[in-house]
Amino acid sequence: MEVIIRPTAAEAEKLTARIIADAINAKPEFKLGLATGATMENVYAELSRMNKAGEVDFSQVRSWNLDEYVGLAPEHDQSYRYYMNKNLFNNVNIDIRNTHLPDGLAADEEAEAARYDDSIDEAGGIDLWLVGIGCSGHVGFNDPGTSFSSRTHVAYLTKTTYEQNKIYFTPPESMPRRAYTAGVGTVLDAKKIVQLITGKRKAAIAAAAIEGPMTSMISSSALQLHPDTVVILDAEAAANLKLRDFYDEVFQNDPKWAAYR
Ligand code: PGA
């Protein structure tokens, strides 16, 4: 696991966008895993800017998102399909038919979850999955207790996640308590994982996930198992990390990061 700390959220977001853009430019038929949430909004704004400036081309990119609420139509302004169209897909030259999220209105939930995993497998797997972390330690909606080998499934959301996200709903109680999520195992199958964590409200959970023991109580800690994970944090989110100085030393001296410093 590589850990990079940037002084500000803006710098962490820009670095994240650059790593994704460089990976796409190196392999245009890219299979990109995506996440939603407040953390990612500026990453998508930066990727949109880069696309308009000719710095990254999404024309052959195919994408899969981590999750979607059960029961929300794509047009619902809190659905993750709506978020992705608004924050990224409508602003770049991706073919919308190549963008995938679970169908929140699918009649058969098990079949929909299996279809989603199959669509990733048929495409040859995800090249890079961009993920965040929730205050519950989740990646996707894999709240505490989710198996590290889980595949895409419908999850009942914990109170922590409900409290974190219901503020976006009007009224707040209308937030669905169930959602499709790619499993921890689905995410671990990606060839590369890039995790972005910003803000002081994430400092405690970031330290537990990155430097604490692996446990299904913090699904993000499963990323420690992955051979190619980069975690990018701003200084606030990194505040509780014990090896902060070491991570900085690596980023400043390892030649592989020279272009990104
Ligand atoms: P946030 O959500 O970016 O809105 O904090 C992240 C998450 O819950 O995974």
Blueprint of the fold:
Layout lengths: L1 E5 L2 H18 L4 E4 L6 H12 L9 E4 L1 E3 L10 H8 L11 E2 L8 H14 L5 E4 L21 E4 L2 H7 L12 E4 L2 H5 L3 E6 L5 H9 L17 E6 L9 H10 L8
Bound molecules: 2-phosphoglycolic acid.
Summarize, please.
This protein is of the alpha/beta class and 261 residues long. The chain has eight helices and ten strands.
How many β-strand stretches?
A: 10
Number of domains: 1
Q: Number of helical segments?
A: 8
Q: Work out the radius of gyration.
A: 17 Å
Mean pLDDT: 98
Order of strands across the main sheet = 1-10-9-6-2-3-5
Q: Give the CATH topology.
A: Rossmann fold
Bound molecules: 2-phosphoglycolic acid
CATH-derived architecture: 3-Layer(aba) Sandwich
- Please trace the helix and strand order, writing H or E for each element: EHEHEEHEHEEHEHEHEH
- Biggest beta sheet attributes: 7 strands, parallel
Query: Per DSSP, what share of the residues sits in E-state strands of 2 or more residues?
Result: 15-25%
| Broad shape | globular
Helix fraction by DSSP (H/I, runs of at least 4) = 25-40%
* Low-confidence runs: none
User: Structural class, from secondary structure content?
Assistant: alpha/beta
* CATH hierarchy class name: Alpha Beta
Straight-line N-to-C gap: 18 Å
What does the model show?
By secondary structure, the protein is α/β, with parallel strands linked by helices. The chain has one domain (2-253): Rossmann fold (3-Layer(aba) Sandwich), CATH 3.40.50. 32% of the residues lie in helices and 16% in strands. The chain contains 8 helices and 10 strands. It has helices spanning 9-26, 41-52, 80-87, 109-122, 159-165, 184-188, 203-211, 244-253, and strands at residues 2-6, 31-34, 62-65, 67-69, 99-100, 128-131, 153-156, 178-181, 192-197, 229-234. The strands form 2 sheets. A 7-stranded parallel sheet has the order 1-10-9-6-2-3-5. Strand 9, helix 7 and strand 10 form a beta-alpha-beta unit. Helix 1 (9-26) crosses helix 2 (41-52). The radius of gyration is 17 Å and the shape is globular. 44% of the residues are buried. The mean pLDDT is 98. Bound molecules: 2-phosphoglycolic acid. 2-phosphoglycolic acid binds next to loops.
